[in-house]
Amino acid sequence: MAAPGRLVGHYLHKNGQFLLNNIDKLWFRRSFHWSPILRQQAAEANTESSENIVIPKKKTWSKVAVLEALAATVKSDPTAYPYQFQDDPYLSPRTSSEFTLFSLSQESGRAAAKYFMNTNPKFFTKDFAEPHIPCLMPECVSPSLEEVSEAALKERLSLRRVSAAVDMYDQLLQCGQTVSIETTHDLLDLISFYCDRDPVVEGTPDREGTEEGGEEPRRRKGRFRKASELLKSTWKENNNAERIFNLLPERDTRCYSALIRGMVKHGAYARAFDFYTDMLNNRVTGDVHIFNALISAATEVREKYNDRWDLIVELLNQMKQQQISPSLHTFNSVLKSLRRCGFLAKSHSLHTLSEMKALGIAPSLATYDHILAAFFRAGASGPNNTDVLYEVLSVIKETSFTCQDPDDVLFFSSAMRICLENKDLELGYKVHSLVEFGENWRLLGDPYQQSIYYGRFFNLLCLMENLDVVLKWYKKLIPSLYYPNPQGLKDLLQALDTDNRLDLLPTIWKDIHSLGHDNKLDLVEELLSLMSREKHSPEVQQQFSQCALEVRSVFEGDRGRSLDWSSASLNHITALLLRADHTSTQAWEMLQRFKEKNRVPTVELMEEFLSWCIVSGSCDRAVELVQTSASFCLPCTHSLSERAQKELNLSEEQRSVLSELESAAETTD
């Protein structure tokens, strides 16, 4: 039997509304004898209370609300690799080149898996996902309709089969069937976008025909070619798009739009303007997409700056006459074309921005990037060279952006370049604070663009910021956000030298080694030069000598990344080993390496060797040193011999050996 409490709860759950609605009848009327006046007051009170009750609307939660709440409690780990590389720590990239290779490998693997799954759907018939995830299931990549019909044409259009769609369209016309104007529009869009060629799936062989007059197909470093290279195809006159366009009895705006945009996309700028003139002659009104394409192509059909701007103004006036409202992409196209109008860019770009605000069109990051490009040139500097960027940041601070234009991802790297060229640290911090606001970091672009941005920011920090702050940013950015290149590590070494914190060089060397830059000879020599430039405390010299031994193992390693000995690296490592007590023996071994590698030691190194011999009282080593100097025909051989005879208690035999070396050196001189 169920518990009494459960029965009561069940009863209240089923009949709770009835009890609430009739509680005055079930209880009060049985317990009290109300007067008519009291009953009237109670009724009025119930009426007022019922009018004041507002039932709230149901709160609708997002499907990922719980995940977003959990994500808000987790902070990024600056010591971890980027999240997309954490599945296999052994293969986690250490350098920017490995980062790019790893990213491309992942994308290539996904593309290959998707290609195999779509071409062999019979092996992937079971769906274990709950709920169903359509993107993980095979797509229909081959036409299922074989009859000649408009439905079959639409199927080929959805599959992006350009050649098959054109063939089906021709068969429909030969059979005397008509094709709807909507399907014709889609066909023209497809042909124009892919330049009358079938899209190549990345990772598949290039099966296109050879170039006209050629014997072998052009390929990209082998048998395979990226799908993005199709966008570089040139527009050929009287291709299928133009042929189908000419067969149409009536040509509307959408037909002209498809061809004009395709011509601009694939480099046929003059022909696009010819088609636009034909559209005007046929009294067809354009659309905003046609004018956006023509404005972006205006700089390709005019040579002089004034002529380019006049053409842009003419197109804008024609938009106004045809009552076509400009869009964000219209103004961005104008600003992007102004970047190629020389001295006209500054004044007209600000006027264009004012027109945008007057029409209520909010600028995107690409808009501001074009504005900055109009006012800044690489290498230009001046007292007020950053005023425009300050004004831009004051307008867009604490604003979360979404990508609305492909050029939006170029703003942050361009802005940080301006900060670096003008050495404006405050401005650099403002740019980075905008990156960290909301999800603006998503607009940094691809991994290559991100590396450029963070490299410029870190370079600015090394030049202008305190070393302690630089090291904090160094730990925050690397390797979770930025893989430093050799130049970035050189900037860090210079920052250590400026603040006289050379004791941190062994730690930086470990990072250089872990990041895979220990095979960069100029970077390694820069590190060794800073360590061997002057003497330090015994503790620091012990650390430097240990670091020198690790660097030596890189030069002598049997790996494919081993370095070739240079005179500078030999001199620096030998000096570092000589200054530490426990590595002095290795220093004398390094002195013999000069002969093996046909390198010449410096005079300063030989004098330092002799000083060590004098302090340790090693007469045999001193004689050996003078003999080594004479074998290299160094000009310091005479001075080394005199100093050894003067400051060391040599035997007669040793003095005679040194005298012979002196006379031989004088004869050579």
Give a quick set of tags describing it.
single chain; 669 residues; mainly alpha; 61% helix; elongated; disordered N terminus
List the helices and strands and how they pair.
Blueprint (H helix, E strand, L loop, with lengths): L3 H18 L1 H9 L4 H17 L12 H8 L23 H24 L30 H9 L3 H13 L6 H13 L46 H8 L5 H13 L3 H13 L6 H9 L1 H4 L3 H17 L6 H11 L6 H14 L6 H11 L11 H10 L14 H12 L2 H12 L10 H18 L2 H11 L8 H13 L6 H10 L6 H12 L5 H19 L10 H12 L5 H13 L6 H14 L2 H13 L5 H11 L4 H17 L1
Helix pairs in contact: 6-7, 6-8, 8-9, 8-10, 10-11, 10-12, 12-14, 12-15, 15-16, 15-17, 16-17, 17-19, 18-20, 19-20, 19-21, 21-22, 21-23, 23-25, 25-27, 26-27, 27-28, 27-29, 29-30, 30-31, 30-32, 31-32
Main sheet summary? none
How many distinct helices? Answer: 32
Instruction: Indicate the overall shape.
Output: elongated
Number of strands: 0
Strand content: under 5%
DSSP helix fraction: 55-70%
Summing up helix and strand content along with how strands pair, one would put the structural category as mainly alpha
Radius of gyration: 39 Å
Spatial separation of the terminal alpha carbons:
119 Å
Low confidence ranges: 1-35, 202-231, 378-383
Arithmetic mean of pLDDT: 82
Description:
- With 669 residues, this protein is mainly α.
- Among the domains are: 363-481, no CATH class; 485-593; 600-669, no CATH class.
- It contains 32 helices and no strands.
- Helix 15 (328-338) runs antiparallel to helix 16.
- The longest helix is centred in the first third of the chain and has 24 residues, at 96-119.
- The chain is elongated.
- Mean pLDDT is 82; it is low at 1-35, 202-231 and 378-383.
